[in-house]
Write a structure and sequence with these properties.
It is a single chain. The protein is of the alpha/beta class. It has three domains: about 5-85, Winged helix-like DNA-binding domain superfamily/Winged helix DNA-binding domain (Arc Repressor Mutant, subunit A), CATH 1.10.10; about 95-155 and about 265-295, D-Maltodextrin-Binding Protein, domain 2 (3-Layer(aba) Sandwich); about 160-260, D-Maltodextrin-Binding Protein, domain 2 (3-Layer(aba) Sandwich), CATH 3.40.190.290. Helix content is about 40%, strand content about 20%. It contains eleven helices and 13 strands. A five-stranded mixed sheet has the order 4-3-5-13-6. The chain has a four-stranded mixed sheet with strand order 8-11-7-12. Strands 1-2 form a two-stranded antiparallel sheet. Helix 1 packs across helix 2. It is elongated, with a radius of gyration of 25 Å. The chain starts with a helix and ends with a helix.
């Protein structure tokens, strides 16, 4: 039999307060506090750091919470299999996604998921940092990456092609680079952590150190700077596909692009069983991004060709 104090501890972490957890379990806050202290005393470790404003799990508490949640999910799944109950998506689902991608490609379609899974209480956090899924209690993370940590299960959703681009006004003023070497004479734009640029053209590979003309920690700012004619940026097609189709941005150095090892994934922590809400949300993401709303076919191809690439093909 599962210790009820484990259930209380998990509820405290999920609710963020003793009083809310007590209400959910139908006990008094004083009883909840007493039982939590009893659990900590029995384990011989502080699980929750109490302050006058909030409760926060300690490092030991975060690890214990991850184990307890896995146990609770396994028990719920076992009961559902025994009783034949349907495993409908339900409960709190915490999702993390990159800021621009979440705003452009997830938020506009969330009404579809919420209509299909009315029992889910969705929490969507947009953050460009690679958050720790367990520490932040994230159920599903959308991440654009080439390497996935072995502690996470990855579901590949779509490719993420990247290309160099700039506004027509910038190129009219400064001219178009004809070779990658000429980029050093141009204004380049990149957010913190986005240098060096890795570029490929067939079997040719280049790495270009970028001193951004404007320093920023925001990829969205880089996009807006490129659109306003400040400089040249290396952008994902999911981010600038519409602007390229409309002619607000044009490709620079056609034939050169970011490596194709980068892809868009849905990630979740490894566990013996996966909650129905997680499975349902990943299925929603697959439907949303297959086929991807962006396409290389939308990129104009009538710009001046890169003479270095032409020489390589000759």
């Amino acid at each position: 039999m599962l210790d009820p104090d484990y259930v209380l501890f998990a509820q405290v972490i999920e609710a963020g307060s003793l009083s809310a957890a007590a209400r959910a379990l139908g006990i008094s806050p004083a009883m909840a506090s007493k039982r939590l202290a009893r659990l900590e005393a029995r384990l011989g470790v502080r699980l929750i750091q109490r302050t006058t404003r909030r409760l926060a799990a300690t490092d030991a508490g975060e690890r214990f919470h991850a184990d307890v949640v896995t146990i609770l999910r396994d028990i719920a799944a076992a009961e559902a299999r025994v009783t034949g109950a349907r495993d409908d998506p339900a409960g709190i689902l915490r999702v993390s996604a990159p800021t621009s991608f979440g705003r452009l490609h997830i938020a506009p379609r969330l009404h579809d998921f919420l209509r299909e899974a009315p029992g889910v209480s969705l929490e969507l956090m947009l953050d460009d940092a690679n958050v720790d899924l367990v520490a932040a209690r994230i159920d599903v993370a959308v991440r654009i990456a080439s390497v996935i940590p072995p502690s996470l299960v990855a579901h590949r959703l779509a490719d993420s092609p990247r290309l160099l681009c700039a506004a027509p006004a910038y190129l009219a003023e400064r001219g178009s680079p004809r070779t990658p070497g000429e980029l050093s004479r141009h204004r380049l734009l990149a957010a913190e952590g986005q240098s060096p640029w890795r570029l490929v053209n067939g079997r040719r590979h280049l790495s270009i150190d970028v001193q951004s003309h404007v320093r920023t920690n925001s990829s969205e700012i880089v996009r807006e700077l490129a659109l306003s004619g400040v400089g040249i940026a290396l952008r994902s097609l999911w981010d600038v596909g519409d602007a390229l189709s409309a002619g607000r941005l044009v490709p620079v150095l056609p034939g050169w692009e970011g490596p194709r090892d980068l892809a868009i994934h849905a990630l979740h922590p490894r566990a013996p069983t996966v909650p129905a809400a997680v499975t349902a949300f990943i299925a929603f993401l697959r439907r949303t991004l297959d086929p991807a709303p962006w396409s290389m076919a939308a990129v104009p191809r009538d710009r001046d060709r890169d003479p270095a690439a032409d020489a390589l093909r000759a």
